[in-house]
Structures are given as C-alpha cells and as structure tokens.
Amino acid sequence: SIRNGIRSRELFVLTYGALVAQLCKDYEKDEDVNKYLDRMGYDIGIRLVEDFLARSAVKKCRSYSETVDMIAQVAFKMYLGITPSVSRSNTTENEFFLILENNPLVDFVEELPAGRTSLCYCNILCGVIRGALEMVHLAAEVNFIQDRLKGDDFTEIGITFLKKLEDKKHKRNK
C-alpha cells in the first residue's frame, strides 16, 4: 500500500510537470498559467475534502490554528507524504504560514522554465487549500510567500482566513 502510494505520487509529480509545461506553451503570460493552476487546484480541493474527511476521521476544528495544523500534519502527509511546519503571524490571529522544506511537486524540476520568472509553478497547492477550506465554510486567501524554485531557501505558503462562510442549511432555518 505504501509502495503504491509512492508510485502514484511520483506519477502525479511527473504528470504535473507535463501539465505545467503544456500550460506554459498555451499561455504567454505567467499570470494566466498561475490563474489556471489555482482554478484547477480549487476544483480538486472542493472534491478532495470529502475523501480527506472520510479517510482521516478528523474531528471538527475549533480554530484557525487547529485548521492549519490539520492541513499541515494530516492533509499534506496523506496526499503528498510531507509535513510542513506551521508558523503564525505575530500581528494577526487569522494569518498562518506553511513552510515546506521538501516539495514533492518539484522533485524533478531544477528551475523555472526560461523567461518564466513570475510563474508560480506549484500554484495548484494554493487552489487545493482554498477550495477545501471553502467546502468547510472557511474563506481564505492562499498564496506563495517564498518559493525554492525562485531562489528562496524554502517554500512558504501563506494562508489568511477571511471569514467563516454562512452554512446555507442553517441560514434557511432562521
């Protein structure tokens, strides 16, 4: 089972690289590629949350902090085989950072494609997190703060919780 997980992860990483390469051919502007990857990730996140909740049997998180810890310690481990460290903003209670020492999506990538300095190669991750959070009624802004592919020492994803979304079925009962 672990062996199959590793194989499927490697296949995903290789397929993802081919997808990004194709998008770079299809779109001239990095921002268009970044938007496409985010939108694709968002769609995946919306669908992935059910699988995550079923397979992980996690309890409902009571705070943003618990939610981010769940993303780092359970979700990333389950789907990418890594556990990012979490840091919190010193100024606000709704801003967190995931620090990825290793990022499996770039295992076979040395550098960004030539002339693609604004490309956010792993932007799909931001979309996945945003989509999954929305499905549990949390609106968030998710983006890359640092990126090893752009010369930073590590990869860092920022998550800023915006507000708790209204649960539609509760709204109807009022």
Automatic annotation (TrEMBL):
The protein's role, per its UniProt record: May play a role in vesicular transport from endoplasmic reticulum to Golgi.
Protein name: Trafficking protein particle complex subunit
Signal peptide: none
Organism whose genome encodes this protein: Pelusios castaneus
Keywords annotated in UniProt: Endoplasmic reticulum, ER-Golgi transport, Golgi apparatus, Lipoprotein, Palmitate, Transport
Family according to the record: Belongs to the TRAPP small subunits family. BET3 subfamily.
GO BP: any one term: Golgi vesicle transport
One cellular component (GO) term of this entry: TRAPP complex
